[in-house]
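Justification of resources, computational component.

The compute hours requested in this renewal are based largely on the per-chain cost of generating structure records like the one below. Each record pairs the submitted sequence with a full structure-token output. That output is archived, and it is also reused by downstream analysis tasks.
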Amino acid sequence: MTICGTFLELDLEKEQVELKSWEELFEEQLGRKKSVRELMGGFGRGLNYFALLQNSYDDFAELCAICTGFLTGHPHFGLPMTCCKTAVVFLSPVKRKGERYGISFANAGTNFGSEVKELGVDDIVIVGKAKQPVAILLDGTGETVAMELREFDPEAQVFDTLERIAADYTYETVCAVGPAAFKGVKFASAHFSTPLPGKKFGLPRAAARGGVGLVLGAKNIKVIGVKGVDEKFPKPRLGEEEKRLVVELNRGLAGAATEKYRCGGTWGGNFDFLLPAKSLPAYNHGKLLGEEAEEVNGLWRMKCEENGLKVEDEACSPCPIKCVKSVEASDGTLWRLDYEPVALMGCDTGIFDLDVVLKALRLANAYGLDVVSTGSVIAWYFEHNLRQGESPTFGDQHALLDLIKKIAVREGIGDVLAEGVKGASEKLGDVDIAMQVKGLETAGYPAWSNPGYAFAVRGMCHTSMETYNVAIGRPDKVHELEWWVATLKKGASDAMLVQSGGFCHFARKVILPALPALLELYTGVKTDKDEIDRSGLQTYILARAIDTVAGFDRTDDALPERAFRCGTTREWFELLKDRLYAELGFDTTGRVTTGTLKKHGLAEFARFLRLCG
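The structure output for this chain reads:
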């Protein structure tokens, strides 16, 4: 077994920590044994805590959960490579309907989840608010897990915080937030340390999207440090045949299925894919660039390397993909270049100078900002000013760096932009060019080819609906309703499986087909592909059910104006809603009903969520 069946409940107001059994909690409350969805873990299991323990949906700081997947863990425990993901599940400050908030998640690939399991638990559930900003230090090296709360400077930047926790308290596995989280920036993020061989730390990874940093800041959490022991990790007992399966999976992870990201990283791989298709979004998604666009050469990895740029590989853990590509700017600034941060902070703001983009990314991370949302809201502001005949606007390098600082401390116009593109556009105007869905700023992929953005759990996010690039390669299918219904249903299930199992998004082509065998190998539960797919869809349906309780409906399954190009019309989109809702069992307003829950094998949640129908 690679699951413990337990979670730590941290009560910050009482300053108490208690070990509890999630298996017993779910069985007692739901009247059944644990399900495949709950065994998968991650976002799927995290939803249960909100369905059963959340008192209301008008306080995003009441509860948050850090959840590992059944595959989360270091390969030396007998797990496949790339399985280092941990999901933080929370009510999103940006996903608001009236006075209520919808469900969301953020994750990062680091050692954090493996260390959580080395405490002897699968999940950490945090309730209440600390009396002042604190570092939560969880020490599981003894017989039990001890919690210590240490007062900590909320103004400390992310990198300084990680270094101090390691130096002063000897915790190297850490989650930290920056100053932005305590200034009320809606898209503040959380950052995870990355110990690397031969180094104290690598560049931290961000659990960025949806305002998870603000949630932690509202609970007065500056830092969460975890320290466990190998002996407490729920290690599987593998025979020779089982070991061979893991070896074959690892070979697959180093093969053709991951070549795009292994060789070019997300940065190089996606530029190489989108530019020939004339589909690289730029200038607040107002243009789609092709490889003939000369300005893009300043950020296109292939062209940068031709001009002598040196790129180094870096992996989240022992991982053959090594999708992270680190680059040093001319002034010595070191940062990693992932596709979406480069696309949103660079192309979308009209800035194609790699040195400037590197500085912007490092600065935003130091303050604890989601770099994708930061780039998107600045891009919107640049176009808003262009419409008004004012400055700054696209291409202003000084303004980009200055606005990042102002957003982080909510100074001047930064106070407005810190509300996110939805809030800023509602205050200043130009809502029609606000690239957001359900309050979440756009991902780095074109909206015209992906109506899935409207139905994604997090909002305008590509990793919570696996449909973001499918139509670029199938332009003949862009307007085919039935194809889209089937694609969206599969895309929802696949995305939720990736966000639950603890494995990397870039490993999905290898891991997803192997999930039945892996679940049996590591939990002893026999299942098949249909049951696995059903469990992924159940996660999506339960998330929609929680959003239904929070007041979300058909009107929130919307797309920005710039999605309606290349022949896609609002009338067609409304027909797609009708067909998808019918297929999934929603009512005509897009709400989950008790009938929906019964259709998907989730009837036991009806009394907790108090749904109609």
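Residues 254-442 form a domain with the Aldehyde Ferredoxin Oxidoreductase Protein, subunit A; domain 2 fold (CATH 1.10.569.10). The chain has 21 helices and 19 strands.
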